[in-house]
Structures are given as C-alpha cells and as structure tokens.
Amino acid sequence: MNVASRVYFAHPICIYASLEEAVQLQRIHGRFPKAEVVNPAENPGGLQDPEATMNHYYRLLESCNLVVFTRLYGKITSGVGKEVNRALGRGMSVYELRGRRFIRRQRRVKFVSRDATVRLYERWLRSRGRAYQEFF
Question: What confidence tens digit (pLDDT) does each residue in 42-99 have?
C-alpha cells in the first residue's frame, strides 16, 4: 500500500484550508511519503458552476493512481462520493482516512445529496464560528 506516485485527496470543500485538512494531509504524507498528494483545494481553477467544478476535479483525480477520502460528520458528501465512485469504476485503489487509519474501500459508496451536503457544510462552519459561504 505504500507505493503510490500520485494520491488524490477527496474531502469536503468546507474543510479546505482548515486545521483539519492540514492534519489529514500530514497523515496522508506519512502513509505515502514518496507520493505527490494532489489536493483539489490547491487547484480550484476559479470555477463557479458545480458541474464544471466536478469535471475539473475528475481530471485531477484521473491523473492519480490512488484516492484517499474523508467523511464529514460520518457522512460521505456528494462531491466526495462521486469522486470515490468514479475512482472505483476506473479500477483505482481507494482508501478512507478515518482518524489515523486507512481503510481500503472496494465497493461503490452511498453518499448524501447536494442539499444534505450543504447542510453539513453549514453545520461544520457554524461549529467553528464561521458563516456559511457559497462554494459554487
């Protein structure tokens, strides 16, 4: 499992540029020390349309050979779920980062709707004293 040249990090947009993201990235680098980690937070492309944004992220994902994903409040958000299922459909290795553990996932995942995802983002942001912002 430690052999990976490029790892795509699928995680909820509300986590971007947070302490949680930094900790998760540190764990990914620790598990795959020789891999380049492709973080979509660093490649936003200035996109505002959800479909165009996902297409941009799919291109990034497809340039990798392994995916690591995280949940938000125990749920797989809509964009992350789409990325995970796309990776699995392409035969890529997929791992869920849960705490400090990396759990191999080989079956398609179920994920919440876009509306439910937005509600989770709002909850997460409120819990940190931040106002909701439109992501796209």
Answer: 976 655 677 888 888 999 999 999 999 999 999 999 999 999 999 999 999 999 999 9
Q: Which residue has the tokens 């909820």?
A: 12
Query: Residue 67 forms beta bridges with which residues?
Result: 8, 94
What's this model's pTM, rounded to 2 decimal places?
A: 0.90
What residues does each domain of the chain span? 6-127
**Residue for token pair 């050979």:** 65
Query: What pairing do the DSSP bridges indicate for beta strands 36-38 and 6-10?
Result: parallel
How far is Cα 33 from Cα 28, in angstroms, rounded to an integer?
A: 8
CATH domain 6-127 topology: Rossmann fold (3.40.50)
